[in-house]
Structures are given as C-alpha cells and as structure tokens.
Amino acid sequence: MKLIDFDDKFNRKIAKYIEKHAGERTEEEWENFIADAYGKFGDTYLGEIGKTPRQYFAEMSDSALVETLKEYLLQDVPVPDILCEELESRGVFPELLALLDETDEELVHYALNIIGSDSRAFGRYIAMLSEDAYDEHIKDSLADLLKARADDAAEGVLPLVNTESGAYALEILSKVKRRDERVYKALLDAFLGADDADAPLYAGYLASYGDERALPSLLSAIEREDIGYVLFQELKFAIEALGGEYDKERDFSNDPAFKKIMAAGGGTDIFGAKKSS
Rounded to 5 degrees, what are φ and ψ at 74? Predict the structure, then answer.
C-alpha cells in the first residue's frame, strides 16, 4: 500500500511559514498557532489527491481505515492525527476491536487510545490483563482505562483478584464507588495479607474505596511498635481519609527512610513535620 505522509506535507508548509515570520510570536503562541494550523490543514484541498486530508480518510470503509493505520505503523510513516480522529468519530466497530487481539505494542496502544473507556471493550481489556503477550506498559494503560469506569468493570475484574493479575485487579477495584461486599473484602484481605513493602499501597486502596469499616484494621496496624516511617504515614493518611484520627507521637529518628526524607527536606518531612529530637 502506497501511503501519503500527510504530516511531512504539513511540516514542510509550516516550516516555511515559521522561517518567514520568525520572531513574531512567543514559543507558546507558536505552539497554539501550529495546532490550529494542523486542524485547518485537514480541511485544505490537496490537488494531488483531489480532496482534503479529512475527506481522504472519511471516504474509507471501517476495515480500510484500520488496515491503513496498520500500514502507517508497519512502514514507519507518521500516523496522521486526522486518521485517528476519523477512527474515533466512528465509535467502536468490529475491525477496531479486533486490534485488541494484536500483540504489537504500538498498534495496541493506538487501539487503546482510540477505543478508550468504552464498555464494549471491557471484556477484552480484562482478558488482556491476564495474558503474557502484553507487557506492563500495556497493562498499566488497561488498568487506567478500566479505573475510569470501575463500577462497570468490577464484575469482570473480581475473578482476577487471586491470580497473577491480582495487583491490577485491586488497583481497579479501589476506584469502585458502588458499595460491594466482595470489593471491600478483596481490598481488606489484600491489606491484611501484605508485607511492609506492599502495605502502604493497599492502605491507599482502602482509603480510595472509602469504606470506614476498614478503620479498626488500619488503627491496629499503625500501632505496631516495629512500623516503618513510610508505612506509618500512609496508614495515617488512610485513617484520616476514612474519617478517623491518630495523634499518638511516634519516634522515627532511627528509621532509614525518615533520615533520608529529613536530610532532603532540611529538617522537616514532606508533610512539614519537624524532626524528632
């Protein structure tokens, strides 16, 4: 397939204009001008194709548009934003969803950006979290998309809690707004079973979920004599986020993390607290 490098055509035109009018705008003004100019370029008639770039992609069928995206990536030609805009304007359709079965990271990222948090893709998103074909970059993106509509995704995500994808499942479930005993139990069990390295994260998940029934467990954990400074601060934050309080003075002067934070902060920690004597 012979591709048209629309971005190169635009860049050549804009480069000539900038050279001619250098110094007339600030850097920020140029950025805004270029963005606006690109939008107008999409509606500019190009004699070599007999239509505008926007019309060029709009006249393609769904399948042809997806295949064209693949070819741009395969041939290492910059993907025009106009092509992606056309794909987004059509909503979710079978050929677009089929890109989620691909394993090329760049292609999958394009698919995720175009599909976004559309619930019709959730089944596939959830399955992808468990598949070895996708690395952490893809899975982080999947988790972000599912978190955006966590209530809709919860039912499909819950079965992943006790699998190798459990960390992603818990991250997503922490954003659920609807009260669900299964979600609460999953988040609480994760916190109760966590070591000190993971406990701050799971305490944060409990704070995010917002169920005050977690307070006794958090208060019990913060009372530990051997608690580290980082875990202490995260537990304190979670307790306060759930409406509780913890004002007991604790001495962390021998804690390595506390010493580093104090040294970097000139005698106060990141919360503005003064160093313990």
Answer: -65, -40
